[in-house]
Design goal:
The protein has helices spanning 3-32, 38-52, 75-84, 88-100, 103-113, 120-132, 134-137, 150-162, 166-179, 183-202, 204-210, 212-244, 254-265, 271-275, 278-290, 307-314, 333-347, 360-379, 405-415, 451-456, 481-491, and strands at residues 58-59, 64-65, 423-425, 439-441, 461-465, 494-500, 503-508. The strands form two sheets. Strands 4-3-5-7-6 form a five-stranded mixed β-sheet, with helices on both faces. The chain has a two-stranded antiparallel ribbon with strand order 1-2. It folds into two domains: 3-379, no CATH class; 405-508, no CATH class. Helix content is 56%, strand content 5%. It contains 21 helices and seven strands. It is mainly alpha-helical.
Length: 510
């Protein structure tokens, strides 16, 4: 690697490290101030605690194994680090690291395609676009999810492909599809795009004529890979059904597959779904383009693996799939940005057909758009006071988090309660108690019993945060924590164990 590129790689490393510390602090502070939720961070941490205690990723919130909800073998990798340091911060730091340090393979892709030429300004601007774009860092606001780790492995896989290192590429792909079984769809399109790029570039017909035997062997190899990966997906659905006690994994036709997606992911694939929430859908595309994504138009082939997510989000009635601040945009950001870095490298070509891209005005326009995108990203990010998305509950700025006596009280109470106690919490309080094997979450109680069961259950402690909106949230359970607290007090079966700083703890009278 030329000396100039080494210096540039060091700059990218420093940028990634800086954002890594910022986003790690944001994520951990969110948890410490009772703003993380049971259905995000809590499920993963509880499942890992269950695994370390001899239960196969069991979670009270799911009333079963995590593998009954998502087939994610990568949980074993996370469990190793969680075993070393069994704390929620472990998950949050892993996630922040993989999101921010995706910039390293992105830069290396550019460096490899650009054959050693250095363009300090544009590549650094594009790195900053990635690190600040709300649709690439938005999953960090979702507490923790395996899906958020996709960009890291996808980008490394593509770099190793471009570098001609198939073993390392295979390892990166194996990690990628171990995050979520549905990522096999992205992989199949990735395989189509990368191999088409590799062999069509050399001339398919010429290659077949020159080496028919080798071509046949390669065809058989890739056919075996496709069959194997489909087998992996079908096996994953069976395992999910086994641990989740559901009958949806019997996929033997396209109709059965679409029905499976409808039942498990609420994907309807209707024109009405496409029309609904169109402002959010258009804004998602606009931000992707402005945040350096327009360079991806210079390498459109590499955008093909994004098709499943576009269909997944645009044709679904579930608005969460197109909301920035959920984990789902992690299926879009690596594809757009890897394509953008390839496109940026190609746009610097001096071939006759690319001369228009070397026009000085065009170059300056691209830089100005990226600068504008970075500014928008900063103004809408987690650390800017009065951020644009502050009103959005999915993208809370750090100024909304406050470590005060309310948070201190919860941690003090946790230290004074037996870890085997049977307790009921609300969404934002549960992550602080996810290491308790008998901790329940009001929001998810329909997964373990009906409302009558809830009222008759002998919880040792009921813990609520009255300052949180979750205290009044009803959702599917049929009651709120506020109403449940009143009912428990009126029953005469509970005494007040703690009532201060907005925290109410009731203890069952023996």
């Amino acid at each position: 690697m030329p000396e100039g590129n080494k210096r540039q790689l060091l700059i990218v490393f420093i940028i990634s490290s800086s954002f890594f510390f910022l986003y790690s602090f944001y994520s951990i502070y969110k948890y410490m101030t009772l703003n993380a939720t049971g259905f995000d961070l809590g499920i993963y941490a509880a499942s890992l605690h269950g695994f370390l205690n001899g239960n196969f990723f069991y979670s009270r919130l799911l009333n079963g194994s995590f593998f009954g909800s998502h087939f994610s073998p990568f949980m074993y990798v996370v469990a190793f680090f969680f075993w070393i340091f069994p704390h929620n911060a472990t998950l949050l730091v892993i996630q922040a690291f993989m999101v921010t340090f995706t910039a390293i393979p992105l830069y290396l892709i550019f460096q490899k395609i650009s054959t050693g030429r250095v363009d300090n300004v544009k590549v650094i601007l594009l790195i900053l676009c990635y690190e600040t774009s709300i649709y690439s860092i938005g999953p960090l606001a979702f507490d923790f999810h395996m899906m958020a780790l996709l960009p890291f492995f996808y980008s490394w896989a593509l770099y190793y492909f471009i570098s001609g290192k198939p073993v390392r590429e295979s390892i990166a792909i194996a990690f990628m599809i171990s995050l979520h079984a549905s990522f096999v769809i992205i992989f199949l399109l990735y395989l189509l795009v990368t191999r088409s790029y590799k062999y069509c570039k050399r001339g398919v017909i010429t290659r077949i004529r020159a080496k028919p035997g080798k071509t046949m062997m390669l065809s058989l190899f890739y056919a075996a890979v496709v069959i194997g990966i489909i087998g992996y997906f079908l096996t994953a659905t069976k395992i999910r059904d086994f641990y989740g006690n559901t009958p949806y994994g019997d996929i033997n036709s396209i109709h059965a597959f679409l029905n499976y997606l409808f039942i498990r992911y609420r994907i309807t694939y209707s024109i009405q779904s496409l029309i609904s929430n169109y402002p959010s859908k258009l804004s998602l595309v606009s931000i992707a383009l402005i945040s350096g994504g327009f360079y991806a138009l210079f390498s459109p082939m590499f955008l093909i693996p994004a098709i499943p997510y576009v269909l997944f989000s645009f044709f679904s009635a579930n608005g969460a799939y197109i909301s920035m601040g959920d984990q789902y945009t992690a299926m879009l950001s690596p594809i757009v940005f890897t394509s953008a870095f390839i496109g940026l490298a190609r746009s610097r070509s001096k071939h006759a057909g690319k001369r228009i891209l070397n026009n000085r005005i065009i170059k300056k326009t691209g830089s100005m758009i990226m600068i504008a995108a970075i500014v928008i990203g900063v103004f809408s990010g987690f650390f800017f006071p009065g951020a644009i998305f502050n009103s959005e509950p999915r993208l809370p700025a750090i100024e909304n988090f406050h470590y005060n006596d309310t948070a201190k009280a919860i941690f003090e109470i946790r230290g004074n309660i037996s870890t085997n106690a049977c307790l009921l919490t609300q969404n934002n309080v549960y992550p602080e108690f996810d290491g308790f094997p008998n901790a329940y979450l009001l929001y998810s109680y329909t997964s373990v019993g009906n409302l009558s069961n809830l009222y008759s259950r002998n919880f040792t402690y009921i813990i609520a945060d009255t300052y949180s909106s979750y205290y009044y949230q009803v959702d599917d359970v049929g009651t709120s924590m506020q109403k449940f607290i009143v009912r428990a007090q009126d029953s005469g079966q509970y005494s007040t164990y703690y009532d201060n700083h907005g925290i109410i703890v009731l203890r069952r009278i023996s």
